[in-house]
Amino acid sequence: MIRFDNLSLARAGRPLFGNASLIINPGERVALIGANGSGKSSLLALLRGDLSPEQGNVDLPKLRIAWLAQHAPQASIDPVRFVMNADAALVAAEAAIRQAEANGNGEAMGEAYAHWIDAGGPSAEARAAELLDGLGFGQAQLSRTVDELSGGWKMRLNLACVLMAPSDLLLLDEPTNHLDLDAVLWLERQLMRHPAIQLIVSHDRDFLDRVATTSLVIEDGTLNRYPGGYTASENIRAERAAQRERERREQQARIEHLNRFIARFRAKATKARQAQSRLKALERMETIAPLRATRGIDFEFAQPPEGPDPLIRAEHLACGHSPQQPVVTLPELIVRRGARIGILGRNGTGKTTLIRTLIGDLAPLSGDLTRAATLDTGYLAQEQIEDLRPDDSPLLHLARQAPQEREQVLRGFLGAFGFSGDDALRPTGPMSGGEKTRLCLALLAWEKPGFLVLDEPTNHLDANTRDALADALAEFEGPLLLVSHDRYLLRSTVDEFWLVDNGMLRPFDGDLDDYAQWLQKERSSKAAADAATQGSAGKGGATTTDSTDGANAAAGGHAGSHPDHHERSGERDGTTTAANMASGSAGSTNRASDRRERAQQRAALAARRKPIEQAIRKIEQQMEQLQARADEIDQALAAPDAFSDRAAATALQRERAQIGTDLEALENDWLEQQERLEAVERE
User: Fold this and answer.
1) Three-state DSSP state, 361
2) Which of 112, 269, 474, 550 fits as disulfide partner to 97, beta carbons 3.0 to 4.6 Å?
3) Percent of the chain scored above 70 by pLDDT?
4) From CA 131, how far away is CA 417, in angstroms rounded?
């Protein structure tokens, strides 16, 4: 048990929180929540003994403490041995064995071996290897020394060391950084089984919702305890904020805006699971709007004019840096005007390479790629913060993009991104990663792009900014292509998913829960295959196959094993896709004829689609007009004197009821037209 008694904490003379008195019980998994700079990492440093309280005290019994190091390790040994060295008792026992052997002391040797067994020595190497496997280490990483690994793999190595070391208290500062979704899900399971008290700093709300049993929230100079994870604590705080808040004008405007957006989306949402998942996320935004109105960061992306359709079309595309080693291939891809796509896949599968190719930042290795001539793309890359000029302020960065704009306008725009007052004049060099990412988002939003392409946009962002970004993207009505491991952001903003796996891109027919199940199934299949391989090798019966055949067999087995790969509307299964790719390669001499035939087919399809699409747009316009009138009536009926003229109020109620009936009929018409459109595309 850990007890805080009247605890106050400061850093560099700046108060963080004060007068905190609370208890953390054995077995609790505690989420530390707060904005950047609020004191989360300082509290972890206090528990490590690296920082002293301003006042009060912490009653911390003699606990074995393991914490996640934030610096890249250096060592000339292999990763498995490095992780084993994190267990101090194991290392001490091994040293005692070596000393006893050197001295020829049989009694000491026996005692040392007993300590080694007590420390889990016989299984230590297997445990270390299992941890590294769960964190995504493959043979390419395991065959190198620690010094030879990249920074991201070194940070994963730090996490494996924390899990390897016997501990009663885990202190984890952003443990999901540098992890793909597969590794994040694995880590969730590990922590939920771990018996130690855990204090976790993370901006990944889904991760905290899964793992945390309790939340400590630093807000307004106080440290408050709430039951449950991020969402549970947020809901409680939202209720309290709503009760305290008396001035509702700004909040009400926010809620009404979201209501109108949700109403439009509900009418357009298909029955696909991912669309329904997004609708639930949007409805939740309305619930917590009173809390978010106070967060101080509230920006938006300008709504684009109606753009071209399709935006991007690709056929037999190969993406990568070397013609001999394409990273991602795909037989056919179309990005339409209303597309909102999330790209899934493990780290290193080529998601960034794919989107850079699609937007023209990287030339395709082969195939046909066509982008609309008027396509106005806004691209946010992972490394974009490195391009900021360290000596320039946010205001100067924005002024460089808009040299003719008045300073007052630029300051007002930056204020929505959290750069108010003197913050707009600070140099960017000393800023945190989250502040730099906010600035990059501001520079992107100023350009008013018609097509947003974002690659891990929540890196370094705190929870408030992540929420603001989710809101802004949800309300953005233009096309969106999003790579992210942030599950909340994906649920809130995209309508469909693509999956990059085994060097191929394909549609993923499911939501994020389905994807988690798929990842688990893939992990289990890999473990079974590895076990079978080891068993065969142990019997001396190992066989070898041509590497290309092996890869093709693996791809074929993968595609056929997943329930997503069956004949369905508008899609091809993975096996057919691979066949098409092979066919295209074999028939390269007839490519020109094939292209003409496909062009004719597309023209015929477009001619059949056009009247249906026109009908859909007309219905949508009618629905928007009716919804706008419904909003007017709702506002009128909500006025304090609405029923002073009862006859007029009754007339408005009748009109509102009729609008509801008409909207329902239009929704049915819209669905029928969509079914017609899908039937045309299936033929």
Assistant:
1) coil
2) 112
3) 79
4) 39
Burial of 44 (0-12, 13-18, 19+ CB in 10 A): buried
* Same domain assignment for residues 465 and 338: yes
* Cβ partners under 8 Å of residue 230, min gap 6: 31, 33, 205, 208, 209, 212, 215, 463
Residue 567: other Cβ atoms inside 10 A: 8
Which domain CATH number covers 674?
1.10.287
411 and 500 inside one domain = yes
Structure confidence by residue, pLDDT tens digits, 36-56: 778 888 899 889 888 888 888
Same domain for 486 and 360: yes
- Work out whether strand 169-173 and strand 65-67 pair parallel, antiparallel, or are unpaired: parallel
Identify the CA nearest to 129 among candidates 115, 117, 139, 118.
139
The answer to whether 574 and 555 are in contact (CB under 8 A) is yes
Highest mean pLDDT pick, 281-295, 314-328, 658-672: 314-328
pLDDT recorded at residue 270:
54
Q: Averaged over 89-102, what is the pLDDT?
A: 89
Q: Which domain holds residue 255?
A: 248-292
- Model confidence at 555, pLDDT cuts 50, 70, 90, reads very low
Work out the burial of residue 635: count CB atoms within 10 Å of its CB; fewer than 13 is exposed, 13-18 middle, 19 or more buried: exposed
For residue 540, is pLDDT > 60? Answer: no
Q: Are residues 337 and 437 in the same domain?
A: yes
Average pLDDT of the chain is 80
Do 343 and 217 have their domain in common?
Answer: no
Total structural domains in the chain?
A: 5
Least confident of 109-123, 254-268, 335-349: 254-268
Residue 104, domain member (yes or no): yes
What is residue 623's predicted lDDT score, i.e. its pLDDT?
81
Say whether both 30 and 102 belong to one domain.
no
Q: Cα(615)–Cα(632) distance, rounded to whole angstroms? A: 26
Give the C-alpha distances (Å, rounded to integers) separating 268 from 96, 260, 515, 623, 674: 70, 13, 24, 10, 10
SS3 3: strand
Q: Is residue 600 part of a domain?
A: no
Picking from 494, 514, 534, the residue at the C-terminal end of a domain is: 514
448 and 408 belong to one structural domain: yes
Look at residues 437, 400, 446 and name the one whose alpha carbon lies nearest to residue 418: 437
- Domain boundary, last residue among 491, 514, 537: 514
More confident residue, 254 or 441: 441
Q: Tell me the two tokens of residue 516.
A: 């988690």
Region class of 448: left (phi > 0), else alpha (psi between -120 and 50), else beta: left
Q: What CATH number corresponds to the domain at position 10?
A: 3.40.50.300
Residue 519 domain-assigned (yes or no): no
As a whole number of angstroms, the distance between CA 330 and CA 316 comes to: 6
Amino acid at 444: L
User: Is 558 within a domain?
Assistant: no
Work out the average pLDDT over 326-330. Answer: 92
pLDDT one-digit tens code per residue, 136-185: 898 888 889 998 888 888 889 999 999 999 999 999 999 998 888 888 99
Angle of CA points 454, 459, 463, to nearest 5°:
110
Question: pTM of the prediction?
Answer: 0.56
Are residues 146 and 281 both part of a single domain?
no
| pLDDT tens per residue across span 583-606 | 444 444 455 566 566 656 666 777
Q: Residue 19: how many CA atoms within 13 Å on its side-chain side?
A: 3
Q: Can you spell out the DSSP letters for 30-88? A: EEEE--TTSSHHHHHHHHHTSS--SEEEEE--S--EEE---S----SS-HHHHHHTT-H
Residue-wise DSSP of 290-315: HHHTTSS----PPPPPP--SSSEEEE
Provide the 3-class DSSP secondary structure of residue 642: coil
